[in-house]
Amino acid sequence: MMLSKYARSDLIDAARTAAKHAYAPYSDYQVGAALLFDDGAIITGTNVENASYGLALCAETVAIAQALGEGRRGGLIAVAVTGPADKGDGEPITPCGRCRQVLNELAQLGGTDPVVLCVGTSEVREVTLSALLPHAFGPAHLD
Fold first, then answer.
1. What is the pLDDT along the chain (143 residues), one digit of tens a residue?
2. Does residue 109 contact residue 102 with C-beta atoms inside 8 Å?
3. Has 60 been annotated as catalytic?
4. Which domain holds residue 94?
5. What total number of domains does the chain contain?
């Protein structure tokens, strides 16, 4: 699905705003995610770190949990993920493997293949979730 330049901009802005609320005292790497649904709703999440490092939550996972907690079971059409502008090499960041799988769960519930906007300092890489996670395992495999 092609996003309008306005929807794309709004989604990226929502992810950047979410990143400002990250709890990242250990990595100092603030990540924001924004999910766009077919009804126009945008749900955001931010990374939440923990002193027990393995208990940290990624921004995408937090956003998906929020969406599921609101009763959403599909309708995911786009995702934006952004990191801090002052860290790393400025290249667009992509969801980690775990987050790709979590995003895939919600996408498969609604039969969608959302566009993922991977936001960097000066470039936004646009790729479908199925390209990021080919041959994905999902709810249909359990039937």
1. 678 888 999 999 999 999 999 999 999 999 999 999 999 999 999 999 999 999 999 999 999 999 999 999 999 999 999 999 888 888 999 999 999 999 999 999 999 999 999 999 999 999 999 999 999 998 888 88
2. no
3. yes
4. 5-117
5. 1
Question: Nearest to residue 15, comparing CAs of 133, 131, 124?
Answer: 124
Asked whether the whole model's pTM tops 0.85, one would answer yes
Q: Is residue 51 part of a domain?
A: yes
Catalytic residue among 49, 60, 70, 91: 60
Nearest to 57 by CA among 74, 70, 45, 44: 45
d(CA 23, CA 69): 21
Is 41 part of a structural domain of the chain? Answer: yes
Does 136 map to a domain?
Answer: no
CATH of the domain at 61: 3.40.140.10
